[in-house]
Amino acid sequence: MAATLQPHPPLRPHSIHSYSGLAKPPHLSRLESVTHKTGHVEPISIEVDDAHGGFAPGFLHLPPDIFTAGSGGTGTPPPPPPPSASRGAGTGSTATESQRPAAALPPHHHRTAAILLSGAGGGVTGPSSIYLSLACKLATLGRGIPTLRLDYRFPARAAPCVADAKAAMAYLRDLYGLDRFVLVGWSFGSAVVFTAAAEDARVVGCAAVASQTAEAEGIARLPPRPVLLLHGSGDNTLGVGCSQRLWHMYGNGDRMLQVFEGDNHSLSANAERAEEMLCEFVARCAGVRIDAQERRDVVGVELVDDGERHDLMERGGDLRAPERED
Questions:
Q1: Rounded to two decimals, what is the model's pTM?
Q2: What angle do CA 167, 191, 234 make, to 5 degrees?
Q3: Which residues of the chain register pLDDT less than 50?
Q4: How many CB atoms are closer than 10 A to CB 244?
Q5: CA of 303: how far to CAs of 60, 130, 146, 250, 319, in Å?
Q6: CA angle 25-116-102, nearest 5°?
Q7: Which of 16, 59, 188, 256 could form a disulfide with 120 if both were Cys (CB 3.0 to 4.6 A apart)?
Q8: In this structure, are residues 174 and 99 in contact, taking their beta carbons and an 8 Å threshold?
């Protein structure tokens, strides 16, 4: 029997304004003081054109130098798009002239973005608030990776959540010219990741933290694309057997399963190590090399202290029922 978290009755979609103060991790200055870089974080709302309608909120982390003078850009992020430009279709949409990027990507850019998806309650900070710092680190790497922390309109409902992910890919393509994606999901969000990836070849890699198995059958269609599975052996919400079954379902190919002994559903005892593994995995999928200095000055910097993680998860919506931390 497939393991899943049971959805609660759908609520009204959350607004990006629900997440005031969560655009950046509390200790971002630790990263900026070493790298001397300041990334850009845009609060966005992406319109999803499906039967349910509505907007999926999120935070988009852009590298400080994503648009360079050598490519005809200005070195600064484009201005906020007009209202029509925030639309993304579940099946992808073609950008109008007003939706096209204000500055072109440099020819050598990897054209890859990461999209981070939370669990059955939605949210924007991820397990143990890993997403809050992971997004900043990915955007700060030498060849920075734009990263979107995306909330759902209707959490724990697979079809609308998959539509949210597809709309996000359309948004990033139409406004920023990004057409390769690495998807990361926690708990229920992993099923969204595997389903969306199975239906879209532009997804070049998938990572899952404490995944469920229900509605995650898409993982069998992913080889040879790389997959990373992280799980705690002490997970009382979705047992480690879920990720072990998914590892077998994937079959032969570029797969890795890391089990953290005794850890819980949100990997609270190994949050830093899990974040490092996710950062390195996303970078590898994007073709971005992390050298020893970046591993020390970017990947290894703690932007969220352990004592802050639970509170940030609550504020970020990641512990809404039926999602759990243990």
A1: 0.89
A2: 140
A3: 1, 9-10, 69-76, 80, 82-102
A4: 15
A5: 17, 9, 18, 33, 20
A6: 85
A7: 188
A8: yes
Query: In the block, which residue shows the tokens 């700060």?
Result: 140
CA–CA distance, 79 with 108 (Å, rounded to integer): 23
DSSP notation for 276-303? HHHHHHHHHHHT----HHHIIIIIT--S
Bridge partner residues of 55 (DSSP):
47
Q: How far is CA 252 from CA 185, 219, 220, 303, in A?
A: 21, 12, 10, 36
In angstroms, what CA-CA distances link 8 with 64, 205, 219, 223, 316?
40, 30, 25, 33, 18
Q: Is 188 helix (H, G, I), strand (E, B) or coil?
A: helix
Name every residue whose Cβ is closer than 8 Å to that of residue 20 and which is 6 or more positions away in sequence: none
**Both tokens assigned to 75:** 């070195």
Place of tokens 């890699």: 205
Looking at residue 250, what is its pLDDT?
A: 98
Tell me the backbone φ, ψ of residue 207, rounded to 5 degrees. Answer: -125, 145
| Predicted pLDDT at 109 | 81
Task: Name the residue with tokens 């802050």.
Answer: 308
CA separation for the pair 127, 24 (Å, rounded): 16
Domains of the chain: 39-315 (3.40.50.1820)
How far is Cα 56 from Cα 165, in angstroms, rounded to an integer?
9
pLDDT at res. 67:
67
Q: What share of the chain is helix, strand, coil (3-state, %, to 5)?
A: 35, 15, 45
Q: Put residue 13 in one of left, alpha, beta given phi > 0 → left and psi -120 to 50 → alpha.
A: beta
- Please count the other Cβ atoms lying within 10 Å of the Cβ belonging to residue 210: 30
Q: What is the pLDDT of residue 98?
A: 37
Sign of the four-CA dihedral 300, 258, 127, 183 = positive
The answer to whether 172 and 85 are in contact (CB under 8 A) is no
